[in-house]
Each structure stands twice: as C-alpha cells, then as structure tokens.
Design a protein that fits this description.
Strands 1, 2, 3, 4 and 5 form a 5-stranded antiparallel beta sheet that branches. The chain has a 5-stranded antiparallel beta sheet with strand order 14-13-12-11-18. A 3-stranded antiparallel beta sheet has the order 15-16-17, with no helix packed on it. By secondary structure, the protein is mainly beta. GO terms for molecular function: hydrolase activity, hydrolyzing O-glycosyl compounds. InterPro entries: ConA-like_dom_sf (IPR013320), Fructan_Metab_Enzymes (IPR050551), Glyco_hydro_32 (IPR001362), Glyco_hydro_32_C (IPR013189), Glyco_hydro_32_N (IPR013148), Glyco_hydro_beta-prop_sf (IPR023296). Keywords: Glycoprotein, Glycosidase, Hydrolase. It holds the Pfam family Glyco_hydro_32C.
C-alpha cells in the first residue's frame, strides 16, 4: 500500500529550495512514495511534463526510511508510553554534482544545538571488536553502547571488490542494540555510490538520540535510520566507540562529536 506520496522540484545546480509549483529546464522533479509493506521510502528522480502529466525517469530510485520513523518494539510498549512513531531530524535535499542522485543532509540549524565537544578520538580508535571480520571493514562506530558492550548498535562500512570498481556498503546492525525481549532488531543497508579506490576516503555523519540512530554516508548519498531501545546504554551510561575489524588498516583523519542541546519548540496557542 502506498502512503504519504510526495512530488517536488529540485534545482539542477545549487542547494536553494524551490516553490512546489516551479517548472522549467533548470530543475528536476522527485516522486517519493512510502510502502507500508517494506517500511522504505522510494525516491524516483526525473523530468516532469505538465502537458503529458508524466514523469520521465532519469535516475535510479533510492530507498531510505526517513521523515517518519515507526516503532520497532511491541504494541504493548506503545500503549504503555501512550505514543508511537516519531519525526526524524529535518533534512535538506538537493542533487549531486552529476544531477543523477538525490542527496540528503541534516538541516544547518541543527549545528546551533552543538554543546560540549568531545576530542579524544585516538582513545576511541584503540577500541576493537565486531562479530564478523573482513578484508576492508567492517569499520565504523558502535553507538549507544553499554560499558560491557553487551548492548551496542553498529554503524559501519564494508568494501567489496567488484568487477569494475570496489563496492561500498553502509550498514546499521541492530542485532545487539538491546537486551530487552520482544524488540525487532533488524539490519539495514545500502550501497554507497563512491569511487573508494580514487578518493581513498569516505565520510560518515551520525545523529544519535535515546532511541534513534540516523546515519549519512558519503555526504548524504546513502541514509539509514534505525530505532533502538537499549536498557543499560542510557543517558550517561551510553558510550561511543570507533572500530575496525578488517585486515586492512583504516585511518580516522577527523572525528568530531558534540553533546546536543534541546531545540526551542513552538508551543500551540489556545484558539
């Protein structure tokens, strides 16, 4: 079943937002639809002809659970807390330089909430451990990790050797995210369109809340959202670790972390 369809223009060049009625050769249109069965959102990028009422597809669809994030625990838990489902962090949307892929990135206003900055990246890089070793990767972050690592959510890259170029995978592994029973703990993954042999580097940005992990790979080319429900890795007891369980050495050239503040929310007024 289709849910929450959306149709909007994006500029071929630049990152400025457009009015939804904008048209012309300087832009493309995006058709987004949510499928209730898969819980993914599908984006199709193409050219829109108002006269033909048609969307000529020119780019591959991407699938990202973004915008609305449903719960992964039980219905009984939803009833107990008296709510279910959240809105994820707002994102800016634009086309990459090639004009073939939609890019998503957290809105710039989010940076105003940055508070204390964590700097001890080298100590984090000394931490090791993951379940499946590889050649290049898995390497990335353990987030919302308990002190004994019995609870942890892995956000990592893995590189495979393809026929023409290396293939990069971004993955959320939620299998050890909580010790609670009755919680759905899936893995989400997406391929990242980068030339790792040429660039020799890849970026990762993750937004971490009490029960939400949002990750943006390669500047927003691949985006993944997970709902996790740790029992022990809560508040001050939640830790962040960098890890590499691959045979190849991986260097973290820059690691920055902030403790986020609370945004000012508009309060509804009585009629």
């Amino acid at each position: 079943m289709w849910e929450c369809p959306d149709f909007f223009p994006v500029a071929r060049r630049g990152r400025n937002g457009l009015d939804t009625s904008a048209a012309g050769p300087a832009l493309k249109h995006v058709m987004k639809v949510s499928l209730d069965l898969t819980r993914f959102e599908y984006y199709t990028l193409g050219s829109y002809s108002p006269e033909k009422i048609d969307l000529l597809r020119s780019g591959g669809a991407t699938e990202d659970p973004v915008g609305w994030s449903n719960e992964s625990d039980s219905v009984a838990d939803d009833v107990a807390k008296n709510w279910a489902g959240i809105q994820t962090i707002p994102r800016a949307v634009w086309l990459d330089n090639g004009g073939r892929q939609l890019v998503q990135w957290p809105v710039q206003e989010l940076e105003k909430l940055r508070g204390r900055r964590w700097k001890d990246a080298q100590e984090l890089c000394k931490k090791k451990g993951a379940d499946v070793a590889g050649g290049v990767g898995p390497f990335g972050l353990w987030v919302l990790a308990s002190g004994d690592l019995s609870e942890r959510t892995a956000v990592f890259f893995r590189v495979f050797k393809g026929k023409e170029k290396h293939v990069v995978l971004l993955c959320h592994d939620d299998s050890s995210s909580t010790s609670r029973a009755g919680v759905w703990k899936p893995s989400f993954a997406g391929f990242v369109d980068v030339d790792i042999q040429k660039d020799r580097k890849i970026s990762l940005r993750s937004l971490i809340d009490a029960s939400v992990v949002e990750s943006f790979g390669a500047g927003g080319k691949t985006c993944i959202t997970s709902r996790v429900y740790p029992v022990h890795a809560v508040g001050g007891a939640a830790h962040l670790h960098a890890f590499n369980n691959g045979a190849a050495a991986v260097k973290i050239s820059l690691l920055r972390a902030w403790q986020m503040g609370t945004p000012n929310m508009n309060q509804p007024t009585e009629p």
